[in-house]
Amino acid sequence: MKKHNFYAGPCILSEYTIKNTADAVINFADMGLSILEISHRSKQFQAVVDEAVALVKELLEVPEGYSVLFLGGGASLQFAMAPMNFLNKKAAYLDTGVWANKAIKEAKLFGEVDVVASSKDKNYNYIPKDFESKVPADVDYFHYTSNNTIYGTEIRKDPDVPVRMICDMSSDIFSRPVDVAKYDLIYAGAQKNLAPSGVTICIVKDDALGHVDRVIPTMLKYKTHVDKGSMFNTPPVLPIYAALQTLKYYKSLGGLKEIEKMDIAKAEKLYDAIDNSKMFVATIPNKEDRSIMNVCFVMKPEYAELEKTFFDFATERGMVGIKGHRDVGGFRASLYNALPMESVEALVACMKEFEEIYAK
Ligand SMILES: *Cc1c(COP(=O)(O)O)cnc(C)c1O
Q1: How far apart are CA 100 and CA 253, in angstroms?
Q2: Is residue 344 over pLDDT 90?
Q3: Residue 360 has pLDDT above 90, yes or no
Q4: 206 is annotated as an active-site residue
Q5: What is the dihedral of CA 313, 314, 315, 321, to 10 degrees?
Q6: Residues 202 and 101 in one domain
Q7: Is 30 an active-site residue?
């Protein structure tokens, strides 16, 4: 049976990415060797890194003066690396959930943190209004999480604040054009819209580096990796190769504006089905706060006892990974770039079929 992969991360990758990566595991660049066993300093792999950097710059229209890095350690390492390299005295953070809190916790190790707004009071089911106007002008930077993977909220517009920004775009990078010039740093663990886990993409403004006084270990300095083109030490070779395949695929789709249209169409289809349903309700009430990447919904209270029944029903029909995060419960369907509309249609059909049988 066809599987519809709604996992939140690691998650669906394009067939193009998986097929080409599998081929390279057998025979990379006609070297007669697997990509798993070649030197990262070979000219064939250098070409992979160069092309991946160029495609990130092209797709996101990265301006001059920025470096694109492929690092290890996940987005979680960036929670610490960002303040280590950018926080002198004080930084402003937006609290929109678990990931934002992990970033805040690490930043506090290095300076003062001003949490300008939080949606904790309602289990993070909204984006705080007017957070932009609360960002003070005297902080070193403003940090936010563009897509809150666990709750299904998203900030889809680059904020207007009086300072430079740092953003965790782990779960929605490449789902829309971004005004990179507003940022000192954008980072994203690759395992949601780009590649298997193991690589983190960082887009860093070169002249924003080197302005903190503290001692920074070599590996944790962005400058180290900028100077060596992500080759200071052995980079995650296979995930970078897979990332390149995804980037090529995104280009072939027509770039981020086209991808954004497809992503919006998929999300609208599912939210419409939920909003018009007798049994299900979206956990994010405010439409403009809803993520187009992670769609969270629960059973209405009068049908609460059918949660497990629906889960099993959907599983039998090929739906995979729709269980909600434990902090939210219910269901979460992640609609990353690689997920086809066909899978959204299958989930919607499954929900309708279930309603016909079980709705009172
Ligand atoms: C998944 C995720 C992370 C964690 O990434 P790791 O690579 O596992 O460290 C951080 N932030 C967001 C928004 C995420 O979705």
Answers
A1: 31
A2: yes
A3: no
A4: no
A5: -140
A6: yes
A7: no
- Please indicate whether residue 189, judged by its CB atom, sits closer than 6 Å to ligand 1: yes
Q: Both 187 and 313 in a single domain? A: no
Q: Provide the domain limits for residue 120.
A: 15-252
pLDDT in tens, 281-325: 999 999 999 999 999 999 999 999 999 999 999 999 999 999 999
Checking if the pLDDT of 57 tops 90, the result is yes
Whether residue 168 lies in the annotated active site? yes
Report the b/e string of 97-126 with b at 16+ CB within 10 A: bebbbbbbebbeebbebeebbbbeeeebbb
How many structural domains compose the chain? 2
Cβ of 315 closer than 6 Å to ligand 1, yes or no, is no
- Alpha carbon 184 to its chain centroid, in Å, reads 18
Q: Are strands 200-205 and 280-282 parallel, antiparallel or unpaired?
A: unpaired
Among residues 203, 220, 252, the one where a domain terminates is 252
| 184-205: average pLDDT | 98
Nearest CA to ligand 1 atom 2: 170
Q: Which of 7, 70, 76, 79 to mutate to test the pocket of ligand 1 (most atoms within 8 A of CB)?
A: 76
Domain boundary among 226, 252, 278: 252
Radius of gyration of the chain (CA): 21
Set 95, 99, 140, 263: catalytic member: 99
Asked if residue 190 and residue 43 are part of one domain, the reply reads yes
Q: Which atom of ligand 1 is nearest to the CA of 191?
A: 7
Please check whether residue 4 is in contact with residue 318, taking contact to mean a CB–CB distance below 8 angstroms: yes
User: Residue 269: which CATH number?
Assistant: 3.90.1150.10
Mutation test residue for ligand 1: of 78, 94, 98, 99, the one with most atoms within 8 Å of CB: 99
- Residue tagged active-site, from 192, 205, 221, 266: 192
The answer to whether the CB of 149 is under 6 A from ligand 1 is yes
Give CA angle at 237 (54, 57), nearest 5°.
Answer: 15
> Residue 216 has what pLDDT?
98
102 Cα–ligand 1 center, Å: 10
Residue of minimum CA distance from atom 8 in ligand 1: 74
96 lines ligand 1 (CB under 6 A): no
CA-based max dimension of the chain? 66
